[in-house]
Amino acid sequence: PDASIMKWHFLIEGPPDTPYAGGVYWGQLEMLKEYPFEPPLVRFRTPNGRFQVDTWLCRTQLDYHPEGWQPPWTIASLLVALLALFCGDAFTAGMLQPPFTETQRRQLASESLEWNRGVAAFLTAFPSYKVS
C-alpha cells in the first residue's frame, strides 16, 4: 500500500465471455486534494491490450469529468464505470489505438497474474498473491 491514504490500488477480474476473462488487472486511483469534489485519477498497471500502462485515463469517458462529478459518487461506482469502459469499444485518452486483437488480449489475460507477481509494488499492495 501507499503511505498516502489518497492513493489506492485496485484489482479488476476480467469478466467471463470477454477477451479479458481470467485476467487480473491491477490499477491505481489517486485522489487529488480536491477529492471528493473532483474525481480521482485512474490508471492501469497490468498490460491488458485496451489501456496504456501507467497512463492516466481520460475521466470524461468514465462519466466522471470534473464538471459532472458529484461528491456522493463512490469509488465502487467509478470502478463499475471503468469496467464498462474496459469491456466496451469507446476510445479515449489513455487507450491503445488501435486496441490489441482479441487473441492478443486473451493472451495478456492469461499472463496477467504472473506479470503482476513480477512487480514488487503489486506484491506489497496485494500480499495474498505472493507465491510461497
TrEMBL record:
Domain UBC core stretches = 1-128
Transmembrane segment boundaries: 73-96
Listed A to Z, the keywords are: Membrane, Transmembrane, Transmembrane helix
User: Which SUPFAM superfamilies does the annotation name?
Assistant: UBC-like
Know the name of this protein? UBC6 protein
Q: Which organism is it from?
A: Symbiodinium pilosum (Dinoflagellate)
Per the record, the gene is: UBC6
